[in-house]
What does this fold into?
Amino acid sequence: MIVNEGGVGRGLQPITRELNAQGGGAGGSEVTSYGPTATYITNKKRAFQFSNSEIGIADFKSNETEVLYWHTDTIEGNLFSGKSMMQLVESVSQAIGTMKPLPSWIQNGVIVGIVGGQDFVEEKY
It folds into this structure.
């Protein structure tokens, strides 16, 4: 998983195309993410959370083992197991956190995002 700034539009056309062309990639794509950590939960009631910033590979295709390879000397993170999926998800959530509730004002009015500041603004009259 390569985490990247999400961008404005994230694949929604024509917004993404225009912002990528005129705004130096500010549109992102449909696969960009704000995910802060690579986390996997398997159907075997195991979970892995990696804190490394290096590129790595996690292969869960085998029924017997998971294959992990990172382009570094050390892999940092956590391994989890649980008696149930609910217990496992709760353990992972306690370790990496959960999203804070949205403020009440999010349901009223308009939210405007500005990318790039003055360099991005183009005035047309």
About this structure: Residues 36-119 form one domain. Helices lie at 15-22, 85-96. Residues 48 and 119 are 41 Å apart (CA to CA). The chain has two helices and five strands.
